[in-house]
Every structure is written in C-alpha cells, then in structure tokens.
Amino acid sequence: MKQGDLVVRKSYGGDVLFRVAAFVADEVVLRGMDYRLLADAPIADLQTVRNPDELGGSRQARIHANESLRRMNEERNRQYGRAGFTSALDDRRQPFFEMPGKVLHLDGDANYLKKSMQVYGQLRVPAEGMHCHESQMPQVLFRMLPQFNPDIVVITGHDGLLKQREDLQQLSSYKNSLNFVQSVQVAREYERNRDSLVIVAGACQSHFEALLQAGANFASSPGRIMIHALDPVYVAVRSAFTPFRDTVNISDVIAHTISGRQGMGGIETMGRYRIGVPNLKEANSGQNVNIV
C-alpha cells in the first residue's frame, strides 16, 4: 500500500471510499473521495480498491452529485424563464446583463477544488479558487479577501470527529473545525455585515454551532454527519444567483443539498445577484466591449 491508493475500511463495511494521504507510525491518514471526511485507520483495517465503480456507496454518491448539478442547472433556467428567456445560454438576446455574486473558494483538497471550479465555470459563476491546508486558511484569507473582494466565501476541505472524543461541543474534539472557525473569524472581521459577505464553511462532521457563532451564514454539520464534496458549492451557487432583494430560501437550498438538513444549515441571508442594462453583447453586436 502506498500514498495515493484508493482504499476502504473493513471495520466499517467499506462504506466510504478514501485515498491514502499519509502514513503516521502504524496509522494511515485518509481523505474521503466523495465526502469531505478526514479519517485515520490502522493499515490492517484497510483494503485496496481497484475499481471504485464496484462500490455501491461511491456509485450512489456520484448519482447524488449529478442530481445536485441537474438541480442547479434547472434553477438557472427557471430564473431565465421568469425573465422571459428560454435558457441561461440565451444571453445575446436578453436586454440586461448579469452580475452574480463573486465566489472565493478555499479548499483543503485539490481534487475537490478542481471539481468545484468546474461547477462554477459550467454555471458561469465568477469564482477564484485556492488550495491550501486547512491550518493555513486564516492567513490565506487575510491576504486574498482585499485582493479579490468577493461576495461569497467558501471555506471547506476535510474534517471529522476525533476517536474517543465524546464532547461534541469542544472544538478540540474535531480534526479541522478550529481551523475553519478561525478562518470564518478572519472573514467576518474583514466584512461584518452578513449580507455583504456570505460565508459558507465546514466539512464532514464539523462543529456547526461554533461556525455560525464565528460568523458563518451557512455551515456543516448540524447532525455531525458526512457531507458531499459539492454541498458547499451548491449553497454558494444558490446564494450567487438569489436576487439581492430576496433572502436565500434556506429550507429549499438545504433540502436540495446531497446531505440534507443533518449535513448543512444556516441563517436568513440576502442573495448576491444583480442585473444591469443595457446588455452590451446585444447593443454592441460584433464589437468587444468589457466592463471594468
């Protein structure tokens, strides 16, 4: 067994697919492939996986992810339908231009960051992504917030409850919740208004209450359960495309995440989407005009 191998834990019935991240003494540090879970296990408890498609849990997670993407696309098309256009790609004929909320996405997992940025690009959400270890996120945010000036910040990666820690209210019982809390505090110090800067924070089993108290608008995980890699992205996209006069429909957004209400929660928050006129693509057909 080597770093980068795909494995499952035999003692858990092979329920979650992991990638081997590191070896520490007799323990192996594991990062979830479909869920934002950080775990460790003895080498003897691990079984190498050759074909991930044979695992029912992993296959089901991908089905849920595709369903989440479908919902995001449907929501975008409904938004255009309300404005009288046929699809989100019909932007040359519309009389207005869009200004969805800008996203700054910090991720402790490079593969998840790549997937997240693909989703933002597919849905045409302006986004800047940065991969860094969870412990470095407060310092990275301190530098990047004034540089990028986002409307929405996503702070995520991997987390999990430490073994034999029964006090769920103590941040010391979690692998990365303290790092996420400190990152939220940095972001909220930069912008105190929760409607001017929307913060989505946490990963699997994260300390939901502490993240909200630190200033997050949306966080994981009320039920201390695993959340899917795209759950924070789904919440960020819905915030980016909810009109600034409206509150994000919390119940609807959370219900349509892959992990549901046990995985994600939040507070009333105004959207970050605006439109403007005229549509320069229409008014200046054949010319390249940029808004700066």
Automatic annotation (TrEMBL):
The organism's superkingdom is given as: Bacteria
Q: Which Pfam families match?
A: Peptidase_U57 (PF05582)
Instruction: State the protein's name.
Output: Sporulation peptidase YabG
Instruction: Note the InterPro entries from the entry.
Output: Peptidase_U57
Which gene is transcribed and translated to give this protein? yabG
